[in-house]
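In line with agreed milestones, the collection of sequences with tokenised folds has grown. A representative record is reproduced below.
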Amino acid sequence: MKKNILILVLICFNTMAFAQVDLRNLTVENASNPIGIGVKTPRFSWQLVSNKRNVKQTAYEFEVKEGNKTVWASGKVASEASIFNKYAGSPLVSNAKYIWQVRVWDNQGQTSKWATASFGTALLNSNEWKATWISSGLKSDTVNGIVPMFRKTFLSNKKVASAKVYVTSRGLYDVQINGKRMGDSYLSPGWTSYDKHLQYQTYDVSDLLSEGKNAIGVLLGSGWYRTRLGWENKQNIYGKETGLLFQMVIKYTDGTTETVVSDTSWKVSNSHVTYSEIYNGEVQDARLEQKNYSAANFDDSKWNNVVSKDFPTNYITAAINEPIRKHENLKPIAVLTSPKGETVLDFGQNLAGWVKVSVLGKAGDQIKLSHVEMLDKKGTPYFENLRSAKAQAIYTLSGNGIETFEPHFTTFGFRYVKVEGIMGKINPNDFTAIALYSDIKKTGSFETSNAYINKLQSNIQWSQRGNFLDVPTDCPQRDERLGWTGDAEVFSRTASFNFNVDQFFAKWLIDVAADQKENGAVPFVIPNALKGSFFDMPVGAAGWSDASIIIPYNMYVSFGDKEIVERQYPSMKAYLGYVQSTAKNDLWNTGFQFADWLSYRVDDSKGMIGMKSAITDNYLVAQCFYAYNLEIMIKAATLLGKTEEAAAYQSLLERVRKAFQTEYMTASGKLISETQTAYILALQFDMLPENLRAQAVDRLVKNIESYEYHLTTGFLGTPFLNPVLTRFGRNDVAYKLLLQDTYPSWLYPIKAHGATTIWERWDSMKPDGTFQDPSMTSFNHYAYGAVGDWMYRTIAGIDTKEAKGAGYKNILIKPEIGGNLTYAKGSLETNYGVVSSSWKIENSKFILDVAIPANTNATIIFPTNKIETIKENKAVLNAKSKTVGSGKYHFEMEL
């Protein structure tokens, strides 16, 4: 009897323990245990974890401490909010470490244990900078000159408790302390609109200091600050002189502090990096290297004194986004010999980054690595599409044994590397391609029974990696690599599934607002590196400048981050004001437009499918995006409680749609441009009267059929092509387009040419193996990868409701089957936890498994009309849809 009672008690105890709600993934400002936030009222988030169904948070409690001092005790707060809860305690102080803990109560009577994390503050006020800007003053320190290196020694005769460095530069910095590299970020401080917005980074260097004499060494490259940007060879856009701003705050165990800053006590010399440029690459001469220059005992008696500069500090802010870091390491999959006898390494993947090489040779031997994306059909490296970018790394050996080289202040977009200067047979193990991109967290996964679709997904993600280097660039290889707003806008929702890009875009959008023109127009590239060029006009272009409105709202929808809309709203409103001022009688039909950029043209590939070019009227496109902007502004104004503005935008939207119908549509609903894009945009943004939408869908489908189920859309039509077809009941056509594998299509580059990334043009390489116009042919250009959004939301069926469920608080699971797929699965780590949808078809039976994170709910819509066959486990639902809380669910039904 006692034994049975004991077993029962153990079972009850284990059940209670297993049912305990737990907390994980505690973040502050979207970062885990950050050490240098510059926000005075940071936001806290956490995820609930429970094995039980229908778990919701009902209350939470916060405590925040600095040392033993409690600076915020919230008490029990009745609330479901588990993301972006704002700090409401005593004012935070700079350069401090805080411990915070949170516990929650749920609707099942459970209370979590306290979960603990930390955060550190940076310099919360600009006047707390004690450092001064310093520059080298060296004549050789020019835009294309030798990279300078700085040095400072100092004494630290007490035991260090902690030490933090706050650092930024006009240019790019690489810091060492006592011979060891500081941090694991690269190309810092990143790229911003340097004359209006400059970020600094925070590093914990406690482990790098020692008692006694210490030394700091810094390499300072030109980077995006002053090397040429764009194809017009414009240099020194932000200034001719680079500069360093460095501040180290040391806290000793006895409670005292010491500050080490950049000032005129620092010394400077030329480094062994004799040239470093974003597009052309980097040149290093190991014979000139001053080894151990950051060691305390290094002799710097022959070095020069630095010069101080009065560069401003008032617009310098703590970094809010993830730094660029090293990621995947790839070894060559083949060593090739071109028809010209060139030695070429194939790394098997188009990527952005550089190659690390280890070589043995004599002093003066020179190794040259030339980076390209493609080989031509004869197997020769294809350099023409790089335009004027040399994309080379050149290393001169010192002759001191095995030497290892990699660049400091440049990157390349490449799959293949031509190697020159190595005598004898090359050992591929001596070369490693390293992918560099912003350290955004991978959140989404997607897979189907079709290998080509899976490869398309891989290509989408690799193109995002290759072009998310601190700013969302168009391409990583040629003399461009700019933050084109149109590319970022069309891809932003896809991007937010694959990676957590909330902070990435939040930082970039600050520059969108900073570079916005006085009349509200938004430049076509951000940061605006095209100042003074043809593209630097005080005008906005539909689909490009609209990024200022579309992306902030997409981030809110994807992550539930209302603050990004609040902060950007003045910019959003100003841009819409520009469009209103440009439009006449509610028609946006003036000024420059990119329109449906790079849509199908017959001449592109000699009319490969024998059909006419698909050219959509520029202003028809603009009018549709005018309505798109208004739709979002209505939602944004409503979200922020600006009801009068929302009503005004609603009234304007009705007029804009009416103007479209008068200007671009016949009475029967035929559009002036008989293209896929014209009908897609008109249907997507409800530009047509409801009674004429069905005929428009028919016209769209007939157009697609006339092109033998090939798409003809460009940058602005492509993202909405499949969503429109699905919305209006033509999922069959959407799947046919997705699975089309001849030009033009998404799968053509994969099947015909083994593409590993998304291409800029549908035929960047033509069916006959020749290349498109080399002046604009990139093989790593993510815009057409925007189809990913449809794949995730429609094939896997993972979506979020917007109005009261943004950020996947209220989830929609609605898989749409087709394309002879026998299974598909997707998962997404949201701010609430992982949501997943996995389905398969077996013996005409549809089997669906769904996981919904705690503190959310979901509406599941089943892809069958045989509702009487729908079962959850063995219970008959007899309903087309089901609303569920958190938990795991298994459904089966007949199709």
Notes: The mean pLDDT is 95.
